[in-house]
Hints:
Layout: H1 9-22, H2 27-39, H3 43-55, H4 59-68
Helix pairs in contact: 1-2, 2-3, 3-4
Amino acid sequence: xxxxxxxxxxxxxxxxxxxxxxxxxxxxxxxxxxxxxxxxxxxxxxxxxxxxxxxxxxxxxxxxxxxxxxx
Length: 71
């Protein structure tokens, strides 16, 4: 069992942004930041992150883009 402390969506976005600054080809960080932005209604920003995640090989991002953004 892994215990993860609950954090706000805004704090999660900050943490994913830090991860991206440390490793700009970390597709999962773009993916989860994109999901977080989508949750907050920032759909254009979410799509940009998800496209980057897809280009870095994240298959889940490809599915989200196809299903929710019709891209």
